[in-house]
């Protein structure tokens, strides 16, 4: 852009004359016109470079996460047909000004699931961009494990040994305990009751930061685990529970959980997908990224006939490694699991998308393990399921948050502005004219709005606003110039404030 500008430049006087709508003055406040122009060009180059950098940075984490996905999840052999590629391009075309979809995303999930859909979505776009609009992250109380029992007092959870909140210790009934009492209580569970304990960071998810204290280990080893846990981290310590036999693979330890994803866009939450995270080897934390299998749970609580390892790019059919059959297995009390999840989701409408980890214990009771205020895509879509319920629902969300709310910060030689899908919104005039006609279009898009004090400090004599502008923010012409004449189209009105 800078090269184009200087290619048009003939003399400093000609350019200054163009900006000032007449012959340039010889001197302004003791500063030559040439020096003013030089400073202006330097400022605008900085603005253009800064705006372009900001635009790139806005989506950079999304693209980086997508690149990471393809490094960790091997691509199956095969390709999309031309018809399928056309469908993908058509689906994502309205959003290309904001987000550049990589068709390898649709290719991966189509080949993994055997079911084509142009609306398969990357985890980067879902997790690092879209969810911030429709999940209220200003409510950490909801996602704090120390507060689950307050939010869901009627839902069973693993027995609490202690809470650590702001450096202080409390039992399950919120009765204060000294640090010595807390240590002795842990020792009692491990040495006398022979119960394993799990320590969970209060505001982490997906198994991050979890450690175990084992009754089979010495007290010295367990005390070292307890002391090594970050002292400035809130946490909850619970008794390790066991699955009901219908929920587990008999030859592997680790707690299997149903990952049940709920969405709430209408006020009434619904379950959009569910799969069983299954340990097939001894593992403290059952995590898909570390080798667990994901088996689809049908609506009636039976398991599907294949299990996926998305980070290995593998499918396993009907049986566990020892020949034990999982296909068609009926999970005990899955109907109660669904009812419990929906009841909990209704209590926290601030979180529209939630991934629940929930299980049935050896006593047959439904037990809440964790809620994740994120939902997910990478472990759902290999089954051919849509993480938002359907491609049509995703379209509604993309239209709302990639078209209506997304913008790029932009700048040229005269204007700082926001670029949307079809329109431009002016935020600042930074040219050198004293009589100004606001352009009807910038970057080929209609100039539709002028924001507060967009012309402040420019000491303008005249501003002409085009028919394209449909919105003037409050005090849009504030401090534009004491005697500035403002000419508006008939459909707009503006009252100058006295402070001007």
Structure, explained:
A hairpin with a 2-residue loop joins β18 and β19. The protein has a seven-stranded antiparallel beta sheet with strand order 11-10-9-8-7-12-13, covered by helices on one side. It is an alpha+beta fold and 500 residues long. It is built from twelve helices and 22 strands.
User: Which word captures the global form?
Assistant: elongated
The parts where pLDDT drops under 50 for at least 5 residues are 1-30
Radius of gyration: 30 Å
Strand content: 15-25%
Give the averaged pLDDT, no decimals. Answer: 85
Helix percent reads 25-40%
Query: What's the total helix number?
Result: 12
What structural category do the secondary elements indicate?
alpha+beta
Strand numbers in spatial order across the main sheet: 11-10-9-8-7-12-13
Distance between the termini: 35 Å
The total of beta strands comes to: 22
Q: In this structure, how is the largest beta sheet organized?
A: 7 strands, antiparallel
